[in-house]
Amino acid sequence: MTAIDPTAHLTAEQIEELGRELDAIRDEVIADRGEQDAAYIRKVISAQRKLELASRGVLLFSLFPPAWLIGTAGLSVAKIMDNMEIGHNVLHGQWDWMRDPKIHSTTWEWDHVSPSDQWKHSHNELHHTYTNVIGKDNDLGYGIMRVDEDQKWQPFHLGQPLWNLVNACFFEYGIAAYDLELGKNLGKRRRKDPEFRARARAVGRKIRKQVLKDYVIHPLLSGPSFLPTLAATFTANLVRNVWSHSVIMCGHFPEGVQVFERRSIDGETRGQWYLRQMMGSANISGSRAMHFMTGNLSHQIEHHLFPDLPSNRYAEVAVKVRALFEKYELEYVTGPLPKQVFSAWRKVVRLSLPNRKPKVRASKRGQEVLAA
Amino acid sequence: MTSATLRGRAWKLLEMVTTPLLPSDYLDLVSPLRAGADLRGRIEAVHPETGDASTVVIRPGRGWRGHTAGQYLRIGVDVDGRRLWRAYSITSPTDRRDGRLTITVKAVPDGKVSNHLVRRAAPGTLVQLEQATGDFVLPQAKPAKVLYLTAGSGITPVMGMLRDTDFADVVLVHCAPRPRDVIFRDELHGLAANGRLRLTEVHTGTDGRLDVARLDELVPDWAERETWACGPAGLLDAAEEHWAAHGVRELLHTERFRPATVVTGEGGEVTFSATGRTVDADGATPLLDVGEEAGVLMPSGCRMGICFGCVTPLKAGAVRDLRTGEITEAEPGVLIQTCVSAAAGPCDIER
Ligand code: FES
Questions:
Q1: How many domains does chain B have?
Q2: Is B16 on the interface with A (CB under 8 A)?
Q3: What ipTM is given for this predicted complex?
Q4: pTM of the full structure
Q5: Closest residue of A to B301, CA-based?
Q6: CA-derived radius of gyration, chain A
Q7: How confident is the model over A204-218, as pLDDT tens digits?
Q8: Is B137 within the bounds of a domain?
């Protein structure tokens, strides 16, 4: 939807050839998946559990400031590991091939207020199938933000830097509301829909359990350290939320990432689907620790091309994918975290205001978006 | 309050502490074999028996309820990162002092699990177990005369019986290609030397396959003996016919090792067992489409293999991944993505 289509130089045959080359990269990893990968995820899961246990243990004594600091830091990291490298990836079915019912997309539940199955529907199915298609992929601005010049500006958008900040702090609740399609479903008739009510009840149950655990049970167990533990858990949740929100903003928001019109995906071929994923995602560069803490979503481009490949393989896949970007003269959007976060935020702020120079094409498309 | 309800409450509280995980997820980190855990075992040793067979010594978890001689167990082993389940006869006696159990595994050509257990399994490895099962067992009342008729790894359940129970009059006719292929050969000869067993080895490599009619000459009173037979299907079929022909079919007990090979091809008859519908499918149409065509309620999402919203148990048969061509055969707990899988022969989808 950008004025200049960055893929215009590719012929239809080239796009299908690109698709075949990407399929080959996927097949290679699939054929080679094995014992070491399984050992990797088991190790990560066990490390996460031990870290969480240890941190909660330390927090029992969080009346002492050093214990508070260590416990809070540990719990924050444990929560991030649970959501990112483990939860997100297990729920994508990345480890289903192991046939271990304990590490499986159909049985996994994560430390998050959105129940796994609801998240899988809105994320795996809607977001990953319709990546960056305006009107179909609600991850684009989560339905509350304007993320492209071509979307029509409304006075409501003035507040979007604030929404985004609030959303960052309470991200897991934002996601739960989003998975419930709360905005759409609060209409009078939809509210009564039994299917919606069942899902809302499931979210309610999950929230109750999570809140009870973090803000009642564990503080109570700490006895005299009740309040410090409460503060520590709150902080850990905040850190985890802001961190995941930042990482996820970097995936599709930075400058250079393309969005697509609804009609552009009619009759999309395999090659075109791949191309859309390539142009609609952005990476974060950095150290191995960085990739780990983002759940390898720093390799967002690779993840969107191959959402079911084990996350520990994205780094090696990225080398080959990047070579294809070069071969086909496409822009591989990547950069260090601060730069990407800044870029995404700048866009949020810029688009909270009306476009400076009204574009002819933009207004036409804007209406289309509205009509959608 | 009884102690049971107290314990129940304590457990509930513990679950509140560990949510969304379960207390067992943490306990498994330190004590995977404890009482109350999913049944597992730890491999403690692997002893070679012949060139291609080994005995695996397993310390079962506290939940193990023991076995009856002649029974088998199903064991889940991670091979190349993937959990595969197989059944093996238990070869240890029921009263083994250290509480360990053994299975004796013969590596079959291309057998993923058997080759792994015989050649690669390392002491310390955790395996998944199910409780012992099977009715290839001895009766309560001891028969006066017993005949065991075995071939190859068919000796394994019988070895479990021999180690467990003494009979006054036991004959074993065992077939193997060559003497050195006879699993437990030394022990069997030891039993024979002590007069506890009359042993006949048939070396099929030199003597050819055993003709069941030869039993008249090898064990003249075979028709008076309660018989347990285990080995390849050919031998068991012949035995069943022979015993039936002589009107003593009820004296014969057989144990068949399920053949591990599933016939695969292009397309086949697809059964949706939960709905009770059966349709023909070709080898190129995704099972998701096949099911929807037939009016079966199929869960779905992206329809292109990326969302895992269509995973469904494969109960029997085999399917082919339309993207990679990889064949997946049914095993308990195997789930497939119906949107990218097609029938590779007859199969049963639990929908
Ligand atoms: S429907 Fe999405 S993986 Fe099958």
A1: 4
A2: yes
A3: 0.93
A4: 0.93
A5: A125
A6: 21
A7: 999 999 999 999 999
A8: no
